[in-house]
Amino acid sequence: MKYTTIVIDDSSIQRLATTFLVKNHVALEHIGSYGNPYEGLRAVVDKKADILFLDVLMDDIDAFELLDSVNLNCAIIMNSTWPRFAVKAFDYGINDFITKPIQKPRFEKSVVKVINQLKGEQSSIRSNKDYLCIDSLSNFSLT
């Protein structure tokens, strides 16, 4: 299975570098790269991306303001030149944080981590079908 992936970064050089890594990863399918964060968000929603690589500091808006404005249903790997944003990123519930410039070994580690998280979510959703949940035992009888 390939995981659909979108890159949002206002720096054309960083966007190109991240896109190159995504396109050359066997488990990822690149479905778009965007310098405009609003166009990128629209693509994430419309194309139902599995994974989003998201830059923290962009010209018009930062990633945290962006995440405050929308509820995304995808894994997020946030990236920045500034490691000080990592704690805030994890407070926002992102899946991983990478510092720029992105090194291939760290990229690989992050992708494996996120794919394992996604696989875990899928298997827990499937396994929930095997269980019966009882809200209240007040009227329950085994006789």
Tell me the radius of gyration. 18 Å
β-strand amount = 15-25%
Low-confidence stretches: 124-143
CATH architecture: 3-Layer(aba) Sandwich
Distance between the ends = 47 Å
N-to-C SSE series? EHEHEHEHEH
Protein name: Response regulator
InterPro entries: Bact_response_regulator (IPR050595), CheY-like_superfamily (IPR011006), Sig_transdc_resp-reg_receiver (IPR001789)
Modified residues (4-aspartylphosphate): 55
Domain Response regulatory: 4-115
What does this structure look like?
- The chain is an alpha/beta fold and 143 residues long.
- It has a single domain, classed as Response regulator (Rossmann fold).
- Helices cover 43% and strands 20% of the residues.
- The chain contains 5 helices and 5 strands; from the N terminus they run βαβαβαβαβα.
- Strands 2-1-3-4-5 form a 5-stranded parallel beta sheet, with helices on both faces.
- It starts with a strand and ends in a 15-residue tail after the last helix.
- Mean pLDDT is 88; it is low at 124-143.
Core attributes:
single chain; 143 residues; alpha/beta; Rossmann fold; five-stranded parallel beta sheet; 5 helices; 5 strands; 43% helix; disordered C terminus
